[in-house]
Write a structure and sequence with these properties.
With 222 residues, this protein is an alpha+beta fold. The protein has two domains: 3-78, 3-Layer(aba) Sandwich (Glutaredoxin), CATH 3.40.30.10; 89-221, Up-down Bundle (Glutathione S-transferase Yfyf (Class Pi), Chain A, domain 2), CATH 1.20.1050. It has helices at residues 12-24, 43-48, 67-78, 89-120, 127-143, 157-171, 180-192, 196-221; strands at 3-7, 28-32, 56-59, 62-64. Strands 2-1-3-4 form a four-stranded mixed beta sheet, with helices on one face. The longest helix is centred in the middle third of the chain and has 32 residues, at 89-120. It is globular, with a radius of gyration of 17 Å.
């Protein structure tokens, strides 16, 4: 039957799943959900996911709608080994730690900074939200001083989730000059994550183009 994956390409959480599936060599049945057309509110989608969010994955009756749950499930169910999500409790805890950091800190800070500028036509992020994001990146930069990758010495799903978020900051021209370790890590992931450009890089541009189109529309409506 295959694995159905409901997604929108500009979404960082969706891209983290695409990166993980690509790294595992899994072919997903890609089902595009156009949020601007409110396709996520269609009754047939709400029946699958009452939370009506993307990403949503359906695998032989199992329905998952949180990207970090999806990517860890895919590795455990389909991975040929545990390199992307280690079975060792201590190593896994380091990966989970980064996943929670992305979920609770980095991704929400992006939403606070940039969603108002994207959807309401504000000229720039509020200073308090930028300051908060900078503090979070300051912490991330210190963390990345210890290792080449975010949770150790090799690529894991922590990096795949994190890079989907960080590259979206990059698309919004966030200033990384004060975070050299983040910049170095980002360069490493872009060159070592399987199919990075095809899966994430091109879809980040989709997000950027959407933002630019919305900005032009808001400018002409003022």
């Amino acid at each position: 039957m295959g694995i159905d994956f409901y997604y929108t390409p500009g979404s960082a959480p969706c891209r983290s799943v695409l990166l993980t599936a690509n790294a595992l060599g899994i072919e997903l049945n890609l089902i595009l959900v156009d949020l601007r057309k409110k396709e996520h509110l269609r009754p047939e989608f709400i029946k699958i996911n009452p939370k009506h969010t993307v990403p949503t994955l359906v695998d032989n009756g199992l329905i998952l709608w949180e990207s970090r749950a999806i990517i860890t499930y895919l590795v455990q169910e389909y991975g040929k080994d545990d390199s992307l999500y280690p079975k060792n409790p201590k190593k896994r805890a380091l990966v989970d730690q980064i996943l929670y950091f992305d979920l609770e800190k980095l991704h929400p800070a992006f939403a606070d900074c940039y969603y108002p500028t994207i959807f309401s036509g504000s000229t720039s992020p509020a200073q308090k939200h930028l300051d908060k994001a900078r503090e979070i990146f300051k912490f991330l930069d210190a963390l990345l001083e210890r290792h080449t990758y975010s949770a150790g010495d090799h690529l894991t799903v922590a990096d795949l989730a994190l890079v989907a978020t960080v590259s979206t900051y990059e698309a919004m021209n966030f200033d990384f000059r004060d975070y050299p370790n983040v910049v170095n890590w980002l360069d490493v992931i872009k060159t070592t994550a399987p199919g990075y450009e095809e899966v994430n890089g091109k879809n980040v541009l989709v997000f950027k183009e959407m933002v630019e189109k919305l900005s032009r529309k808001l400018e002409t409506s003022v």
